[in-house]
Design goal:
The structure is a homodimer of 239-residue chains.
Chain A (H helix, E strand, L loop, with lengths): L4 E7 L4 H14 L3 E5 L16 H5 L2 E3 L2 H4 L5 E5 L11 E3 H10 L3 E6 L8 H4 L4 E4 L11 H13 L17 H17 L8 H13 L5 H22 L1
Parallel strand pairs in A: 1-2, 1-6, 2-3, 4-6, 4-7, 5-7
Helix pairs in contact in A: 1-6, 7-8, 7-9
Amino acid sequence: MAAPDVSVVLVSPRNPLNIGAAARAMSNFGFTKMRLVNPYDLAFREAKSAVKSNYILQQAQVFTTVAEAIADCDLVIGGTSVGNRDLHLPLHRLEAGGQILKEHKGAIAILFGSEKFGLSNDDISHCHWLYRIPAREEHASMNLGQAVAITLYELCRNPDMEIARFEAVERASGAELERLTTLLQTMLTEAGYINERTSVTSEQKLRRLVMRLGMPASDAHTWLGILRQLHWKMKQNGS
Amino acid sequence: MAAPDVSVVLVSPRNPLNIGAAARAMSNFGFTKMRLVNPYDLAFREAKSAVKSNYILQQAQVFTTVAEAIADCDLVIGGTSVGNRDLHLPLHRLEAGGQILKEHKGAIAILFGSEKFGLSNDDISHCHWLYRIPAREEHASMNLGQAVAITLYELCRNPDMEIARFEAVERASGAELERLTTLLQTMLTEAGYINERTSVTSEQKLRRLVMRLGMPASDAHTWLGILRQLHWKMKQNGS
């Protein structure tokens, strides 16, 4: 699924460090459209960001009003920590709001308010709905750069990955594990750990022990080498 | 579901600002156990964080080795941007790794490497598995505070919320909408917008128009007042 067409709109950001952090998160997740409404520090273009995200700051657009910044967007939403329930706008948790954004076909603007005051009532009047990141009610106010990062992460999050847990780690084959089990049994018999009389059940226990290791294929050879070395040393001492 | 018992372990963090940002994200999402391994700047306790998260910095524990920092944890994982495939550790995307952590009952340590170098091979040798935040491969290296924030967000994320999109916004009742529709029809008839002959179909069209507004209950009274005022003005002018 293609990422939604999102402009990150920072309204009256005060701290160039946060603008830089927002740009970095945008670059991390592949979003390039940064828009600034009345940034407090017009030297923001000198703000440092990670080298790889400087292009985002350089091509950021500056506006004097929210109306201008969102003029070409057909869905405008705002991040809030307090809910602004008295504004009677729909309020989504990010998990749900993110789904709507992922399914939206047109241009989207996400408004982030200033570090100190958040979005004003006037800013919010431009929004179709609001969302909040599910932070604790007792401390819901988030750092601007972190709020941008979490929001964009949610947009790139792939729910299919919850099921497909492991990225391919090739496991040792049955034949490799059997070689290991066999050698280990020989060694343990020689060492007196395994009783000759009960060796059949012991072999089964041992095999299950080895299977449960979940050994990667790339390590099987190393483990076999280790055991062979130990076996050689055992026999050397025993002679 | 209770949040997992997670210690956030920052290994050799260089920048007190990032330690403060990590503490703030921890407080936002309700995690309190911060552990620092060899922080570069021992004055980190003077690092500023948001006022509400200073308690996390104050009770942060400092260790000289990773082994000490994780001694009481039975699951140790590490965040990485590069994958470290040559280390043959399982590598999960955060979406999947987060599920494992949410289901884990014991104490968990999540290791975050230094801003400059990430986790060293030695740090990683303490980990059961690694995870990566699904950033672009071309720019996968994330800011430390943002990486902590996104990771903790994933742990607090509630997948049920993807379906339950709207938090309750009470919609206007049928009776309120009918009062609006009736008044509007009267006005539009008086204004010559609705033709007497076709007024039945017009009424139905009008009702559907009003229904589609999705008007919140708290706004219905205001809209009715607006229409009444306009109606009064219309009649005043017409008399």
